[in-house]
Amino acid sequence: MEAKKNPDVDLRKNSFFYLALGLALVTFLIWQGIEWTAYDKVAKQEAAEMLEDDEEEMIMTQQLQQPPPPPPPPAPEIIEVVEDEEEVEETVIESTETTEDEVIEEVEDVEVVEEEEVIEDVPFSIIEDAPIFPGCEKYSSKAERKKCMSEKVQKHVNRKFNTELASDLDLDGIQKIYVVFTIDKQGNITGVRSRAPHPRLAKEAEKVVKSLPRMKPGKQRGKTVKVTYNLPIVFKVQ
Fold first, then answer.
1. Range of the domain at 172
2. How far apart are CA 145 and CA 132, in angstroms?
3. What does the buried/exposed string (b/e) look like for 106-145 if buried means 16 or more CB atoms within 10 Å of the residue's CB?
4. For 64-107, how does the pLDDT look when each residue is reduced to its tens digit (9 = 90+)?
């Protein structure tokens, strides 16, 4: 025997309607949630903060402004005039015109004093008349005397220089020493300067050069002058 139900209380009769109504309600709520934002509140809050910052900047700007400096004091209206008590002598310009009665005196001859030409130290490489080393007088030409002097100076240094000094100083290889000296107007050796790898080598080179004999001074344009001489000393320590 089948159970009979009242068709008015059957819930399945309106189930599609309820489903459609529920979907429509949920869709409406989701749309409202998406459309709702808090832009107005955030914008108002940011605008309020910007106004506060502007007020602070305006206050700071007003505090940094300094008042303008006071105007300078006005110049005095009364100007005192100080009298100049010093007397200024006037320059009188005499006339240079001559008259018929004036006697013209003859001017004696004026002596012209020639200034002596000063010649500085001349390098040995360009000297006209090189200093003459003792023993080089036998040569007649200037070039031969110049060459003779260079050879004599080199022989003197090779004979007098203590080459064993470099070994005592634990130096090896090629040693180069540069010496500069001057032969003055009396033929003496002066102004000796040297540069070497060791101070003792430089001192030895100066001692040897100072022992050079007195020479006949050099000449430039027929006048006795000082002559500078550059002497390189090179030897090898074995």
1. 122-237
2. 7
3. eeeeeeeeeeeeeeeebebeebebbbbbeebeeeeeeeeb
4. 455 677 777 665 554 454 555 556 566 656 656 666 666 666 65
How far apart, in whole angstroms, are the C-alpha atoms of residue 67 and residue 15?
86
Domain count, the chain: 1
29 within a domain of the structure (yes/no): no
Q: What is the Cα–Cα distance from 166 to 174, expressed in whole angstroms?
A: 10
> Which pLDDT score, from 0 to 100, does residue 79 have?
47
At residue 1, the 3 state secondary structure works out as coil
User: Which residues fall within 8 angstroms of residue 204, CB to CB, at 6 or more apart?
Assistant: 161, 162, 165
Residue 50 belongs to a domain: no
CATH code for the domain in which residue 203 is found: 3.30.1150
How far apart (Å, rounded) are the C-alpha atoms in residues 172 and 163? 11
pLDDT at residue 64, as a whole number: 46
User: Does a structural domain hold residue 24?
Assistant: no
More confident residue, 167 or 155: 155
Q: Is this model's pTM higher than 0.85 or not?
A: no
Strand partners, 230: 180
Give domain status of residue 173, yes or no: yes
